[in-house]
Design brief:
binds magnesium ion; alpha/beta; 22 helices; binds adenosine-5'-diphosphate; 56% helix; 4 domains
Length: 470
């Protein structure tokens, strides 16, 4: 009951802040309990707690109030279940020693305070074993980014650095994290270089925590011992001191000939909260944009996902027509493609049924975001048509019957009928008070002509495109 409510609150939060922000800050928030007017929530780290309190307190409260108007307070606590005995001064998050050793072994030598304090700061963010170059599908929109990332991944210690930083930007779900993690996996697999992957959140968290425990120096030293620093979701880097430190780190690494790779959801010039020096340093390397996924690329990604699923579920298969359907209809981003395959897999496993087109249509319905058709107004049609045929709008509405006005008027009425939901009488009224049979006649006339007259049909198509784009 409480959990249901909590799910709905999370849903509200997600749609209010967007998928990316939600995943970064709220995905690990748990409900501890509701009592009278107050709700207790917990997060795993102190950093998350202070961030959410500073930036999202109101939002969280109002999402609760939308479900439970009586709620007036949110208490946010740091979960300590994993380390119940941890003294308050210490870092609140669990330590993963293995990762640190792989990422920064020399840390042990340079740290002046007990190593455990620094582990989490430099442990790197978790990597997803599936996000490698082998599973990355190349298409028109990401060829350059992929080539640059490959180049970085294949570099050897001491090689001259070709572009620094490599800065990749793209919208949500277009493969930034995938590419960055691929660089990290590939770079570390030779064991010759140290590649460290950090989300901006981790960078901030590590740094803030290190400052608190006064090991900033060790943290910096250790960072500088990295051959390749990979930072994901830079748009989340916030705060003056964090920025200053980021700037130092960036300069130190670049000046020392170490490679820096960065991903963000926008180009450096649009990172408003960063100061000019950082921005220009970021823009000074190679800045590559990854565009939206084309249909072919989407199909490739789906196939690669199915192949990966088949490694564990040999009986799982998705017929080509279903793949085509998904590639054609799920246009938004890679996450939805992944989600679609996961659902088909779950469904076919649970019900022991083969995947069919019908099942796919049902299962992924909510992932399909129909392009909201633009609402086109009759005024716009009249304006665009008048411009195209070099007549005035009042000519179109007038009773003049010369050929140079009659045809454009008929085209405009035809477009009004096919591109809006207006009725024939309504259209007639809007064209100088004409009868609905006149409109019908115009629509039929143009329909018939478009089938025969290629010039006219191209003109009509061009007009439609203009109207849709305006
Ligand atoms: P971003 O970090 O840009 O938001 P992700 O890298 O998390 O996006 O990608 C979202 C999903 O789409 C992931 O499952 C990823 O594997 C998949 N994806 C995106 N682009 C590609 C690609 N070119 N090849 C294979 N998978 C891709
Ligand atoms: Mg990402």
């Amino acid at each position: 009951m409480e959990q249901d409510r909590w799910s709905r609150v999370k849903g509200r939060l997600r749609s209010s802040v967007g998928e990316d922000v939600y995943t970064s800050w709220f995905a690990r928030m748990d409900l501890e309990g509701v009592q009278d007017e107050s709700v207790r929530l917990s997060v795993p780290t102190r950093f998350l707690k202070s961030w959410i309190q500073a930036h999202y307190a109101e939002r969280v409260l109002s999402c609760w109030q939308a479900e439970m108007p009586e709620v007036h307070r949110i208490d946010l606590t740091v979960r300590t279940a994993l380390r119940p005995a941890a003294p308050a001064k210490e870092m609140p998050a669990p330590v993963d020693t293995r990762r640190v050793e792989r990422a920064a072994p020399e840390l042990r030598a340079t740290a002046t305070t007990p190593v455990s304090v620094n582990h989490d700061a430099l442990g790197g963010s978790p990597l997803d074993p599936r996000l490698t170059f082998a599973s990355f599908v190349i298409g028109r929109s990401n060829t350059l980014a992929h080539a640059a990332a490959r180049q970085v991944a294949e570099g050897r210690r001491g090689d001259p650095v070709m572009f620094n930083p490599l800065y990749i930007h793209a919208g949500v779900g277009l493969g930034k994290t995938h590419l960055l993690q691929a660089v990290t996996w590939a770079g570390n697999s030779g064991n010759e270089r140290k590649v460290l992957y950090l989300t901006a959140e981790k960078f901030m968290y590590g740094f803030v925590a290190a400052l608190k425990t006064q090991t900033a120096l060790a943290f910096k030293e250790a960072l500088r011992g990295i051959d390749v620093l990979v930072i994901d979701d830079l748009q989340f880097l916030q705060g003056k001191s964090t920025q200053a430190e980021f700037c130092h780190t960036l300069n130190a690494l670049i000046d020392a000939g170490r490679q820096v790779v960065i991903a963000a959801d926008r180009p450096p010039s649009d990172l408003e909260s960063l100061d000019d020096r950082v921005r220009s340093r970021l823009a000074g390397g190679l800045v590559v944009e990854m565009g939206s996924l084309g249909e072919e690329l989407r199909l490739g990604i789906l196939k690669s996902r199915v192949a990966a699923a088949r490694a564990h579920h040999a009986s799982f298969s998705v017929p080509d027509p279903v793949l085509d359907y998904l590639a054609r209809t799920i246009t938004h981003n890679g996450r939805d493609l992944e989600g679609a395959i996961n659902r088909l897999l779950a469904h076919s496993k649970l019900n022991a049924q083969p995947v069919t087109l019908e099942m796919a249509e049902r299962e992924v319905r909510d992932l399909i975001r129909p392009q909201e058709p633009k609402r086109i107004k009759i005024e716009d049609i009249q304006r665009v048509v008048a411009r195209q045929y070099n007549v005035s709008r009042s000519d179109l509405l007038s009773s003049r019957r010369t050929a140079n006005v009659v045809r454009p008027r008929q085209v405009a009425m035809y477009l009004a009928k096919t591109m809006t939901l207006r009725s024939l009488p309504e259209i007639g009224r809007r064209f100088g008070g004409r009868d609905h049979t006149t409109v019908l006649h115009a629509v039929r006339k143009i329909e018939a002509l478009v089938g025969k007259d290629t010039t006219l049909s191209e003109e009509v198509d061009a007009l439609k495109r203009q109207l849709q784009q305006e």
